Amino acid sequence: MVRLNRIYTRTGDAGETGLVDGSRLPKSAPRMAAIGDVDELNSAIGVALTHDLPEAARTMLGRIQNELFDLGADFATPGPDFAPSEMSLRILPSQVERLEAEIDAMNVELEPLRSFILPGGASAPAAIHLARAIARRAERSAVTAHGGGAALNPVGLAYINRLSDHLFVLARALNRSGQGDVLWQPGATR
């Protein structure tokens, strides 16, 4: 269990922050941008959870919030060994597979897309669409960090990619099984 007696440490006042292994990075480093975007995504899901949601959606989002903390810890753990251990919290393939199973289960109830959809509909799905867009940014940041030599867990990268799909399908499911989707009308305002 984590125990925080003090919120501020003053160790980041010079623009650096610590990683799980004790090493320090500039707060502007690509790895830190990815971790920050994951944190922002978690906050956006927290906002979505303030809306009236079915219990199944609430359960999925609560689980995802916890996993996003795990993902942040995963991304904050340097090194090429991505096996979980006492000291290394890592996202596992089973977590990606669970997201895929949930996507498939939700998608069965949806009408096929006839157009791209605009983020919106009811308030809860709109909040989830915002979280989805933040998930895409978090994925871009993570891929940038990984490509720049940060060596992030490939399973964590797959998780954040699948999560944005999950949030998209969840938003559609909450928009009256896709009936409340706002369809894009190409060139409609010309």
The helix content, as a percent range, equals 40-55%
| CATH architecture group name | Up-down Bundle
> What's the Cα radius of gyration?
18 Å
Q: Per DSSP, what share of the residues sits in E-state strands of 2 or more residues?
A: 5-15%
Helical segment count: 5
Strand order of the largest sheet: 1-2
CATH class: Mainly Alpha
| Uncertain ranges | none
CATH superfamily: Cobalamin adenosyltransferase-like
The largest pleated sheet is described as:
2 strands, antiparallel
Distance between the termini: 57 Å
Provide a descriptive summary of the structure in words.
- This protein is mainly alpha-helical and 190 residues long.
- The protein has a single domain, classed as Cobalamin adenosyltransferase-like (Hypothetical Protein Ta1238, Chain: A, Up-down Bundle), CATH 1.20.1200.10.
- Helix content is 55%, strand content 5%.
- It has five helices and four strands.
- It has a two-stranded antiparallel ribbon with strand order 1-2.
- Strand 1 (16-18) and strand 2 (24-26) form a beta hairpin.
